[in-house]
């Protein structure tokens, strides 16, 4: 889509004003003519609201039961969460901001339904998708009411950037229409995705992860950023611009199936991250550091695996763990290995740890001084560690006099 964000926002605001002012008798949204939509499988769901349902032909393969470690990879999901209680959720809205003037005109809900028999390790599911489409502003109250009917007390919402955007839009529209916003558990996979892929991908948009990590083909898909313009164009022109609106609806459905695929990948990582690396590319080091912070057996194993794979931050944390456990020789060996690898800032941190160990445990002032000098050579004048290394240098020199 041409133009920068500011230009798009200006164009959207212009179209919004124009769409409010221009309502003609031949406008499908205003006249109630929905034949074009019903021919495509949409059915009336109340005043100026349509519903569409379909089951995706593609299967999602999941572990037989939700892994206990799911919460480590996907905060908001626990081992007690049932697959059938997951509700994949995505909105298309009239603007790119979450202000009171932005409303949702299209919503998709995805549920997992069993597809074939399960075995002891895996289960197969398909995604049943329900969509609601708002045809014009006056129907918003009915539209929001239909959305609220999809939530129940057992639902765990799965979204992508939904905590910051979709759920806030829904809450605002509920309040604007005098309705009580729904309560639910929420797992936003964007935050999980950033931990797994931020350092290995140019960005962590859902589309980038789908294509780069999961090899999902979204050729021909209309960018979601075009949704506001397409909806306002439909408000002005009715059936003449209904086809692009249905393409946005298709984009909305593909967001749900893609979200389910990302969820599937994350659950397999949670079951066995080392085994998952054979088929899923992700940031092993970041996950290992997060898992290790929980101080469990799997976390220690994963940290060691990441360290042995040559990840410097994991190697440094593993060295610290060895020193803390009293395995001094092995811990120092790992620190020296990190120094030799020459990757800052891990290299500087390793030299600092070696200098401290040499000075305080080994009482080897000359060796501590050598490590300190090496660290100072790597530091820049504006480094926060510069002063600490210089103080240590002067103290060690005084001891050698």
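Sequence proposed for the structure above (401 residues):
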């Amino acid at each position: 889509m041409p133009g920068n964000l500011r230009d798009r926002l200006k164009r959207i605001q212009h179209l919004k004003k124009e769409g409010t002012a221009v309502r003609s008798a031949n406008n499908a949204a205003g006249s109630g003519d929905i034949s074009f939509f019903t021919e495509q499988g949409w059915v009336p769901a109340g005043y100026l609201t349509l519903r569409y349902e379909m089951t995706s032909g593609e299967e999602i393969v999941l572990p037989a039961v939700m892994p206990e470690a799911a919460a480590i990879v996907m905060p908001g999901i626990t081992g007690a969460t049932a697959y059938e209680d997951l509700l994949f959720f995505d909105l298309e809205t009239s603007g790119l901001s979450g202000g009171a003037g932005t409303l949702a005109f299209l919503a998709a809900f995805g549920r997992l339904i069993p597809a074939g028999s399960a075995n002891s390790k895996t289960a197969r599911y398909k995604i049943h998708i329900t969509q609601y489409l708002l045809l014009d502003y006056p129907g918003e109250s009915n539209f929001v009411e239909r959305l609220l009917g999809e939530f129940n007390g057992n639902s765990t919402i799965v979204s992508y950037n939904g905590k910051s955007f979709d759920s806030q839009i829904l809450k605002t529209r509920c309040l604007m229409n005098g309705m009580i916003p729904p309560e639910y558990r929420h797992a936003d996979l964007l935050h999980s995705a950033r931990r797994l892929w931020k350092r290995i991908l140019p960005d962590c948009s859902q589309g980038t992860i789908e294509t780069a990590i999961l090899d999902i083909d979204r050729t021909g898909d209309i960018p979601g950023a075009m949704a506001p313009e397409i909806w306002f164009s439909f408000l002005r022109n009715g059936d003449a611009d209904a086809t692009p609106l249905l393409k946005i609806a298709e984009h909305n459905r593909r967001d749900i199936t893609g979200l389910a695929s990302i969820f599937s990948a994350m659950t397999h990582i949670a079951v066995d991250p080392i085994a998952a690396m054979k088929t899923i590319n992700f940031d092993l080091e970041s996950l290992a550091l997060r898992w290790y912070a929980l101080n469990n057996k799997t976390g220690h194993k994963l940290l060691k695996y990441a360290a042995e794979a040559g990840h410097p931050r994991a190697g440094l944390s593993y060295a610290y763990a060895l020193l803390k456990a009293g395995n001094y020789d092995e811990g120092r060996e790992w620190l020296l290995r990190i120094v030799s690898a020459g990757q800052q800032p891990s290299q500087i941190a390793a030299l600092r740890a070696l200098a401290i160990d040499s000075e305080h445990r080994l009482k080897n002032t000359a060796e501590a001084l050598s490590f300190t000098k090496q660290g100072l050579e790597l530091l820049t004048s504006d480094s926060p560690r510069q002063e600490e290394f210089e103080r240590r240098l002067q103290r060690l020199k005084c001891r050698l006099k």
